[in-house]
Amino acid sequence: xxxxxxxxxxxxxxxxxxxxxxxxxxxxxxxxxxxxxxxxxxxxxxxxxxxxxxxxxxxxxxxxxxxxxxxxxxxxxxxxxxxxxxxxxxxxxxxxxxxxxxxxxxxxxxxxxxxxxxxxxxxxxxxxxxxxxxxxxxxxxxxxxxxxxxxxxxxxxxxxxxxxxxxxxxxxxxxxxxxxxxxxxxxxxxxxxxxxxxxxxxxxxxxxxxxxxxxxxxxxxxxxxxxxxxxxxxxxxxxxxxxxxxxxxxxxxxxxxxxxxxxxxxxxxxxxxxxxxxxxxxxxxxxxxxxxxxxxxxxxxxxxxxxxxxxxxxxxxxxxxxxxxxxxxxxxxxxxxxxxxxxxxxxxxxxxxxxxxxxxxxxxxxxxxxxxxxxxxxxxxxxxxxxxxxxxxxxxxxxxxxxxxxxxxxxxxxxxxxxxxxxxxxxxxxxxxxxxxxxxxxxx
RNA sequence: UCCUCGGUAGCUCAAUUGGCAGAGCGAUCGGCUGUUAACCGGUUGGUUCCUGGUUCGAGUCCAGGCCGAGGAGCCA
Length: 444
Prior knowledge:
By secondary structure, this protein is an alpha+beta fold. The chain is about 30% helix and about 25% strand. The strands form four sheets. An eight-stranded mixed sheet has the order 8-12-13-20-19-18-15-14, with helices on both faces. Strands 2-3-4-7-5 form a five-stranded mixed beta barrel. A hairpin with a 3-residue loop joins strand 2 and strand 3 (about 30-40). The longest helix has 22 residues, at about 130-150. The chain is elongated. It binds one RNA strand of 76 nucleotides through strand 2, strand 3, strand 4, helix 2 and strand 19.
């Protein structure tokens, strides 16, 4: 008897198969039991008719509780009425073995509050929506590696324990490293700038840590980021890479995770339009657009939120309003040098702005990428480090890179959870991580 | 750190002017051969977040505290 996986159910129509899983829901219809059974790859309706199984087996089926572990054998048949994921098939059960009868399960199919669910995150991930999100997340992570690996990027790990602050100490998690103060990494970028000297094109992919006291739907204290870095690359080249890269991620999800996106009831019309090229606007243009929106807004509260002067950074309402003007992700380029990091290249002839670009996702999902050209001239970089009041001795090795074959280069960082939230259409980033770490939560 | 809202049954919530603590869901028992968060009937359910105060009487009013949510600030 072959053990099959629900995601491949269509290949087994008409066959007698065995399923190893858990009872997701049960509907008692008297002489007929409908079991929704999950196996980790999908949900399949399994039907137990009283007249088709032994009497004691039917009694066992009647006693099954939500989340009980079961092994079922039966015949797969196509039936349009059958719910589930992918759906359209059901199992006519002939054998039923209970591996463990679950106690009263706290998470019902009805509504629950955020705190209740987050306290039970270890169980909540079994629920259909959370399961679907995390399946999409895994596909996003694979698509990231897939595109980079096939375009000549070498994956290189960068340290999580780092000796100094990349940019200021206010948002770093401090740890005791055998008596020396160290920090959890906020970025692998500086190391990647060393790595490109050895490998040309690289990326790092892993968790990053920010001790920001941000309490918003877009922030986690621990999140995953992929950071490609490219030698001999300018801002134009970088944006072309980014739009190819992000399009590949989105299109892979649409192709391979349609069932999961259906569970999430995600509107796919805008996602299907994510193809290069993406629109590009400058920061100057963005500020003008926002000022125009503020003036034209009939809602005084919204007008106040959108009001801004040249030189400031965008808040969430600004990003949402800007992105709403486009159907695709939009690049905002050439931010004021003063609001961005010290290593970004000033624009030739206009040093008050830098060769940087953020990518804003559509539909209000915010900034998913930040990237820039990096300063490759030793003396310019040293001056910027000093202007920012950073200790030059901490950056000795970083400055060293500008002495030995320094070339124009650029890179970016894409936040995985924000990308998951966008593609899945999530209201809050906490559902984009299996075990989210936030200002008020580090359990389970 | 600031602003706003909230904390009542296992869960989601209601409770009029300060006057008997309620519903739905879940669980459980019974019924039903096509359910999709099934439906119908019975049963089960309480430290009203904590401490103190006002009052004949507090879930409700007052003071302090704790916890949570949404937003702001912060955030390459």
